[in-house]
């Protein structure tokens, strides 16, 4: 005789309310994927820029297009978030910030430090 199953058939991601620590973890994984998938393009630009002076100028012109600058901003966010959240996860590995209150505080600090570093780097690079 079959037992009735009351579990939902799908996860409705709109109805799930993650804590801030969950968002830090998900964004950590997303930023890691973005950084991983940017490696071939970065290697291509490096190879192009190291060929000769015309290759360097071509790489500069590629980097000055609006779309590539937008992608560069996203990758800059990825680097900053991955670094700051990675430090948080290293602290968790040392059993620092495991309880609910410190974990939430550290997660909010990740977003705060990440925002400050991102703005400072954007100002330093683009101005």
Question: Would you kindly provide a written description of the structure presented here, covering whatever features stand out?
Answer:
The chain is mostly helical. It has a single domain (20-126), classed as Up-down Bundle (3 helical TM bundles of succinate and fumarate reductases). 76% of the residues lie in helices and 0% in strands. The chain has five helices and no strands. The chain has helices at 20-37, 39-51, 53-63, 66-93, 100-126. α1 crosses α4 (66-93), α2 runs antiparallel to α3 and α4 packs antiparallel against α5. The N and C termini lie far apart (71 Å).
> CATH H level: which superfamily?
Fumarate reductase/succinate dehydrogenase, transmembrane subunit
Q: CATH top level?
A: Mainly Alpha
Ends distance: 71 Å
Give Rg in angstroms.
20 Å
Secondary-structure blueprint:
Elements: H1 20-37, H2 39-51, H3 53-63, H4 66-93, H5 100-126
Helix pairs in contact: 1-4, 2-3, 4-5
């Amino acid at each position: 005789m079959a037992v009735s199953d009351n579990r939902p058939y799908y996860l409705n991601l709109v109805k799930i309310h993650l804590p801030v620590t969950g968002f830090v973890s998900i964004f950590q994984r997303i930023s890691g994927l973005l950084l991983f998938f940017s490696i071939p393009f970065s290697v291509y630009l490096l190879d192009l820029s190291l060929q000769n002076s015309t290759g360097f100028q071509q790489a500069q012109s590629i980097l000055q297009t609006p779309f590539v600058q937008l992608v560069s901003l996203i990758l800059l966010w990825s680097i900053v978030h991955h670094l700051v959240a990675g430090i948080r996860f290293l602290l968790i590995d040392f059993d620092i910030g495991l309880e609910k209150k410190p974990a939430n505080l550290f997660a909010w600090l990740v977003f705060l430090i990440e925002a400050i570093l991102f703005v400072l780097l954007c100002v330093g690079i683009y101005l």
